[in-house]
Amino acid sequence: MGDRALVPFSPWSWCLLLATLQCCGASFELNRSTDSSAQRELNVRFAAASSQPVETISVFTLDYDYVQIPYEVTLWILLASLAKIGFHLHRRLPGLMPESCLLILVGALVGAVIFGTDHKSPPVMDSSIYFLYLLPPIVLESGYFMPTRPFFENLGSILWWAGLGALLNAFGIGLSLYLICQVPAFGLGDINLLQNLLFGSLISAVDPVAVLAVFEEARVNEQLYMMIFGEALLNDGISVGTRSWASLCSFCRITACAVTMKKYVEENVSQTSCTTIKYFMKMLSSVSETLIFIFMGVSTIGKNHEWNWAFICFTLVFCQIWRAISVFALFYVSNRFRTFPFSVKDQCVIFYSGVRGAGSFSLAFLLPPSLFPRKKLFVTATLVVIYFTVFIQGITVGPLVRYLDVRKTNKKESINEELHTRLMDHLKAGVEDVCGQWSHYQVRDKFKKFDHKYLRKILIRKNLPKSSLVSLYKKLEMKQAIEMVESGVLSSTAFSIPHQAQKTQETKRLSPEDVESMRDILTRNMYQVRQRTLSYNKYNLQPQTSEKQAKEILIRRRNTFRESMKKGHSLPWGKPAGTKNIRYLSFPYSSPLPAGRDVKMAEFTDHDGSDSELPPITFHTHSPAKSIQERRWTAEVIPMKSLHGAGTPPRFGYQRSTSREERLGRGRRAILRPKPLFHAVDEEFESEEEGEEEAPAFGSLLSSELRPGGDCNLSHSPLLQRK
Amino acid sequence: MGSRSSHAARIPDVDSIRRETGFSQASLLRLYHRFRALDRTGKGYLSRMDLQQIEALAVNPLGDRIIDSFFPDGSLRLDFPGFVRVLSHFRPVDEEEDGNRDPKEPEPLNSRMNKLRFAFQLYDLDRDGKISRHEMLQVLRLMVGVQVTEEQLESIADRTVQEADEDGDGAVSFLEFTKSLEKMNIEQKMSIRILK
Question: Which of B53, B59, B66 sits opposite A625 (nearest CB)?
Fold first, then answer.
């Protein structure tokens, strides 16, 4: 989407919006002039036209009351969808303000229309609808897309911060407001402590997810991200939970369900289904959130407000003060225990990202009037706080973060520095992967063991679906095989043209613009470092660039490998194979039993899969591991052959292609007869073959066609001897 | 914790490894578990194949080179001390430790110089102590997407060597390399916090 030229809030969508509004208005017009009069008018006209007796048959009736509720709800949803689409089409807008801003505006707009036509808003929102239909999708989606590893690693900090912070905020705000209410000048004497406390709890619930989208631009570090994210997740639960224990329980249950189910779901279903599930969840939660915001906007414009300057101003002030207190105090304490403490800058960002959202509003709206005689006051106050935080803080948090960030990386880097920095990032990422992921919690290890032993056997089916990378790999292998047949020799690729000649060193004088453009090219085109946490953007699913990059890298590696094979080199790191014959031939990288091997392969691949936690790139099946092995294996055998002087690589190439031709049934016959190098290992390979489900791995292609090669003169005594 | 100490006893030469690398007992234990987990067939050492099984390395542009760096001098087997030795380059630098260090002892493996040396060897494949233009070009090729043309890459490689090269020999020696990175916070860039 970013690649498209700037698409401003396109004219057509505006027109559509306006048209919709017109219809909306028109239908309200009709409603205002009551049905009966409209009907009468129509009837009269009809009668006049047909000069029939006055008794008429109503052909066209407009029973607005009948369709009112679904009609209006649909209208709202339609309006919101159009607004959302327009918002995201616009290139810069999502980075400037959180989406909540837009939704509130839309809601306010709808509210204005409804209010303007004196129409009473239908009671769509009530407690049961909120808890049964609107909140669960949001919670489910949060849980599903939560990056589990960083969350659990930081769980201590998150619970400390979000949990204790929320409580601190709630009590702080509540108590302060109660004290304010005690002042007789403000006329708030009838609000008791309990009401204040409850109000405090619901107003302290932040909805930072709205801000996360803005954070995306600024690339906040992982720790910070997790804190805010965890806070978002827990806040919903806490504020909901303060109302009733049952809701807290159900909230926890939904979250737990989402978090645990994700792992198994993603491994069991195909890539497309996985995507479908993701999109569906996002859609549901998006719709819920939109409805809540719209309703909020509608409620803004109406008669059910009560304005009290003191209460509202102090609410706003206290919200900020208490949030600041809780942030700085709690982090001061927790920084003692953290290995990597949060800087003051980070804390400022966390403080400033305290944007309230629809959650607070819903809770305020659902306060029982019996317990809260001054409910309207609370609703108004909540609305003011939400508007203030969403609009003012939401819009300025982006620039703030960028400002804080920019101060660090202001200096221009030379090309050297850029290149080396990126190299080190890759290096670090690679070594981290070698280290694997350590948990500080024995519990997690135990769970993983349990998971492997029992749960996976039950919950994950045997023939796992393939990820797109795996399919790519297979396609490449097939292509290579076919290529070899057609050309007879291994073809060279576009990539790795080894630079044999060293160009003479001419020191060219490069202008600054050249240097600039070079730096640009480098910055834009260097591969991104693998992100350990997938950046969570609520409104978009993960972009596909990382997968494209991974494919490029895989293809390139394969090609360089092919190149080295072609030149007859042993592996770039290789020593003469010599004594390693035996190792290669016996194919030791798996257990001897084919059936056992499958399971084992699947096991350790899964193990790595859970380690690496990269959903789009995890290898779900064992075949890539196997095909890498086989490829290496075949490559390793080649140098053996050349070393034993049985032939030069090109000749070897002919041999292999010949056998391949036989298999593929082409008529071409090479001069040389197939030297079944691999004959000796056929038997072993055969036994491996049985267990294998996916056939077209490179090596297996090779072996399967060599089997029919009857007249085998074994040219390698070492091979034979091994057997 | 009791069970942990009994495991530590299983690590061969644990004391000498500790002295050499500076890892804590707990970290060594975790590394040992990881080593054993990577060694799927229980050979007692790691081969390149074992490291290649890590999928994330397969899609790392420098994956092959990183694996190579674990096998110095072209050896084919990686034992546990070797594994730990390489990883110790990435230990975070502890300032206190640095202050109390006995200057007569060899530099710890995770010093800035040693970290840079480790990075340097990723470029310098032929181990001649210099990054030639050709080697720079190879690294660039690995790290850059396919849209960049060969000419552009060559000119970038030229420029890179030119910027860092001070004695005009057309290659970047280790000292020139360190000089070009003197402003960079290597200690932070090349430290993995879990290896504390």
Answer: B53
